[in-house]
Amino acid sequence: MTTTTPLTSDLDLFSDEALTDPYPHYKALRDLGPAVHLTRHGLWFISRYEQVRSALGDWETFSSGQGIGLNDGFNDAWGSALINMDPPAQTEQRKLFTDRLSPRALRPVAADIDRRADQLAADLVARGSFDAVTDLAQDLPVHVIMDLIGWPAEGRDQLLDMAAGWFDSAGPACPRTAASVPKVEALMGYLAEVVAKENLVPGGFGWTLLEAHKAGQIPVEGAIGLLAGYVVAAFDTTISTISSGMWLFARHPEQWDLLRSEPSLVPAAFNEIVRIESPIQVFSRTTTREVDLGEGVVIPAGARVLHSYGAANRDERHFPDPDRFDIRRNPVDHLGFGYGNHACAGQGLARLETHAVLKALAARVQRIELTGEPVRALNNITRGFQSLPVRIH
Predict the structure, then answer these.
(1) Rounded mean pLDDT, 312-336
(2) Angle between helix 220-251 and 175-197 (nearest 10)
(3) What's the pLDDT tens digit per position in 166-215?
(4) pTM for the whole thing?
(5) Chain-wide mean pLDDT for the chain?
(6) Is the pLDDT of residue 377 over 80?
(7) Rounded distance, CA 44 to CA 201, Å?
(8) Do residues 244 and 385 touch, judged by C-beta distance below 8 A?
(9) Core vs surface per residue 46-58: b (16+ CB within 10 A) or e
(10) Distance between CA atoms of residues 243 and 222, nearest Å
């Protein structure tokens, strides 16, 4: 057993102040060392790119099997969810995601996504002023993703609030986490009802899960957990990326001019948006053995470890001038969608939707301007906006 004095900090990364602007705190923690023990919540925090990427690629040492939440209630309730599993069980169930969300499987819907994005952009140009969250960023996920899942038309809108509550409920013991519990209970009840009544359109992603459950491949809890994975992850990552992109381009008009002049930069712009404003900021795992990260930092076995995608993506050790928004950077190795066996299975769909929106707007819009104060959606796990008033012309 190695004996060391761990680097510690009493910083509360889940306070309103830290969630509003976490980046100065991330830098301070990165500068302390490769991992820091956050005494307020009893967590180890890894924030440097190299260490985060390495940990995400080593599921045998950094296990998801004890849950990725920071409280027992979340981990107990969602023990059958894909995100809370390790291989080999995780590998088998993940195939139900990857088969339906692979580039090849999504190719038939790409034209429909482009068509919807074009119509949406035309409608918003005609309006001029709108909320980039509710009127733009939420539109495609609610309609495209729900159609792909085969979700019934009724009740789609209420899923947005439930999904945000799911991420909040993964936080540490604090008022924000406690306030999310009713939303998550409603989500679990709703999903259980949909599965029980088989209230999904045949042929959709959701129907595939029902068939796997009826064939005995997954228990009912697994079907509910996988369905939650489709609904929750598909919403937040895409909505946050599109709205963050609008915010960034409004603040950096020269980058919008660049994108308009070179539409081929859309994929690079997408990567840079996800890098600099990672939609998922943190997730946690548990160490199965003692881990020596160098510089005298040793994480003990059985420790709850917080991996920060948001901090790693702004690590100056890996990304030069990381706080600068530059769509020519094209950071294809960003960690905004995770890495390794738990890398976001729906990232291909998020790319399709965001690419379509950026292309449609770049073809029509000369300038994006903020018309009011943006309102952050403070969440224990995700980063995005609740409201973003803009004008386009």
Answers:
(1) 98
(2) 130
(3) 889 999 999 999 999 898 888 888 888 888 888 888 888 788 888 888 88
(4) 0.93
(5) 91
(6) yes
(7) 44
(8) yes
(9) bbbbebbbbbbeb
(10) 32
Greatest C-alpha distance within the chain: 67
Half-sphere exposure at residue 385, Cβ-oriented, CA atoms within 13 angstroms: 26
pLDDT score at 2: 47
Q: 137 vs 186, which has greater pLDDT? A: 137
pLDDT at site 211: 86
H/E/C letters for each residue in the chain? CCCCCCCEECCCCCCHHHHHCCHHHHHHHHHHCCCEEECCCCEEEECCHHHHHHHHCCCCCEECCCCCCCCHHHHHHCCCCHHHCCCCHHHHHHHHHHHHHCHHHHHHHHHHHHHHHHHHHHHHHHHCEEEHHHHHHCHHHHHHHHHHHCCCCCCHHHHHHHHHHHHHCCCCCCHHHHHHHHHHHHHHHHHHHHHHHCCCCCCCHHHHHHHHHHCCCCCHHHHHHHHHHHHHHHHHHHHHHHHHHHHHHHHCHHHHHHHHHCHHHHHHHHHHHHHHCCCECEEEEEECCCEEEECCEEECCCCEEEEEHHHHCCCCCCCCCCCCCCCCCCCCCCCCCCCHHHCCCCHHHHHHHHHHHHHHHHCCCCCEEECCCCEECCCCCECCEEECEEEEC
